[in-house]
């Protein structure tokens, strides 16, 4: 899927051309629909300025621009709730950025169920050394992510892959390979998630969403897989460990019940090839409260989970309290 976004243009990127909320998640969403400009301001609270500078460094202006995109188009499109706007900095941006301390330099990262870009976009801002693939199945979310990547000029390190995590794992198990690169107007497209052919104007970049047919060109499986508020740990491990290299790690951002969840699903995680889940606290002394992460190392390769195992995982979603 190809779409156009305006370039960053100055210190404060403008809001992307919005996709209004769709009545159907699978609807054919147009990225060209206009929305009101001047999204609501989300100033960095004074009491959070020091933690933000610690976590984002000289890339704090990019984090501020992303906060505006979340509070404006992100709310308009229904990616985050309007009540979350006052809490964007503490509950979302700083909470996600703290996880960067668990990721060594220059690693490949897959963010599963990326949604509005939490934690994937935040990690891309805080850690430009990382190579990040955002995996998101829903069209309006994937388009928003790709627009944000373009507007914040993150395309050199971030790819948006519109797919389900289990679909990616199944495709790789089948030994799928990417077909020849698609063309548009007789010209080859650029690498997935990167600028494509020549822009129509000097102010435009052309980007393309990746899909499973592009996996041969992407760093999947990755050294690190992240997920935030996606699913219970057993189901999350079934989806994410196949996207992790042996010895790589799943970092699941969880809430206050993380220890109970880790204990409850430890046996299921082991059956899926993971080590014992470990609860980590990130950002201690920087963010309050610290970010809670359940870390699982992929210790061995196992076959795909059975349908019975998937059903046993339950239907409730994971949460970040």
UniProtKB/TrEMBL annotation:
<dbReference type="InterPro" id="IPR029063">
    <property type="entry name" value="SAM-dependent_MTases_sf"/>
</dbReference>
<protein>
    <recommendedName>
        <fullName>Ribosomal RNA small subunit methyltransferase G</fullName>
        <ecNumber>2.1.1.-</ecNumber>
    </recommendedName>
</protein>
<keyword id="KW-0963">Cytoplasm</keyword>
<feature type="compositionally biased region" description="Basic residues">
    <location>
        <begin position="174"/>
        <end position="185"/>
    </location>
</feature>
<keyword id="KW-0949">S-adenosyl-L-methionine</keyword>
<keyword id="KW-0808">Transferase</keyword>
<feature type="compositionally biased region" description="Low complexity">
    <location>
        <begin position="20"/>
        <end position="32"/>
    </location>
</feature>
<dbReference type="InterPro" id="IPR003682">
    <property type="entry name" value="rRNA_ssu_MeTfrase_G"/>
</dbReference>
<feature type="binding site">
    <location>
        <position position="228"/>
    </location>
    <ligand>
        <name>S-adenosyl-L-methionine</name>
    </ligand>
</feature>
<feature type="binding site">
    <location>
        <begin position="165"/>
        <end position="166"/>
    </location>
    <ligand>
        <name>S-adenosyl-L-methionine</name>
    </ligand>
</feature>
<comment type="similarity">
    <text>Belongs to the methyltransferase superfamily. RNA methyltransferase RsmG family.</text>
</comment>
<feature type="binding site">
    <location>
        <position position="118"/>
    </location>
    <ligand>
        <name>S-adenosyl-L-methionine</name>
    </ligand>
</feature>
<feature type="compositionally biased region" description="Pro residues">
    <location>
        <begin position="33"/>
        <end position="43"/>
    </location>
</feature>
<feature type="region of interest" description="Disordered">
    <location>
        <begin position="1"/>
        <end position="46"/>
    </location>
</feature>
<keyword id="KW-0489">Methyltransferase</keyword>
<feature type="region of interest" description="Disordered">
    <location>
        <begin position="174"/>
        <end position="202"/>
    </location>
</feature>
<keyword id="KW-0698">rRNA processing</keyword>
<feature type="binding site">
    <location>
        <position position="113"/>
    </location>
    <ligand>
        <name>S-adenosyl-L-methionine</name>
    </ligand>
</feature>
<comment type="function">
    <text>Specifically methylates the N7 position of a guanine in 16S rRNA.</text>
</comment>
<dbReference type="Pfam" id="PF02527">
    <property type="entry name" value="GidB"/>
</dbReference>
